[in-house]
Amino acid sequence: MVFKRRDRRSVWKATAGFFWPKGGWTRAARYVQYRVTRLPDPPHRIARGIFAGVFVTFSPFFGLHFLLAASLSKIMRGNIVASLLATFVGNPLTFLAIAASSLQTGHFLLGRGGRLPDEVDRSLAEKFGGAAADLKHNFLAIFTPEQANWSKLIVFYHDVFQPYMIGGLVMGMIVGLAAYYFSLPILMVYQKRRQAKLKAKWIALKQKAAVDDAKASHSASEG
């Protein structure tokens, strides 16, 4: 399996590895590049997978990026493994920039200006916390006499989720297409070079086998 580990990590180590992979982010990026370029699929299918993975990282559906990337890649007939690897674009080093660009674009398209409103910018964490509190309260209200309250969720939807979703679609499309058109020629060149090397290696092995057969025939005839 592509993502299966030989050693099981504790929850703490897995969490720490999410924010700072073993060997650093540079090594992690090189690993992703290595895996993507060696995928056994035509370049255009791999590039479609990369587009799908990059595109969904701009969506506000955190925790579902793998599932969304794989589903979109399948619909586009892209490489699913490439789409999963491409979600690496969304990581703790880039999430802030992705969220800011998506929110700003969303607020601009909704006619709320080209930047985050000051009240949203200052209380973003508070709105996430309020939405989570409403969800918890409303879930418990199913089993208790308490009344459901949607006020904080409505505020969260209006100020955060809606602009993030709209802006993320636009920014995801732009960055995803850029990733597609950037990766496609690189993959084509890489695969051609790899095929040429494998062909040269196969020819060399075939020539060596022919020489060995000739030597064996010559030795047999002398014997």
Element layout with pairings:
Blueprint: H1 11-19, H2 24-37, H3 43-56, H4 65-75, H5 80-86, H6 95-109, H7 118-122, H8 124-141, H9 151-222
Give a structural overview.
The chain is mainly alpha-helical. The protein has one domain. The chain is 74% helix and 0% strand. It has helices spanning 11-19, 24-37, 43-56, 65-75, 80-86, 95-109, 118-122, 124-141, 151-222. It is elongated.
Helix vs. strand class: mainly alpha
H/E series: HHHHHHHHH
Strand content: under 5%
Distance between the termini: 52 Å
* Domain unit count: 1
Over the alpha carbons, how many angstroms does the gyration radius reach?
A: 26 Å
Q: Which descriptor suits the 3D outline?
A: elongated
Question: What would the average pLDDT be, to the nearest integer?
Answer: 79
Determine the fraction of residues in helical runs and give it as a percent range: over 70%
Poorly predicted segments:
14-20
Instruction: Supply the number of helical segments.
Output: 9
Major sheet: size, sense and barrel closure? none
Number of strands: 0
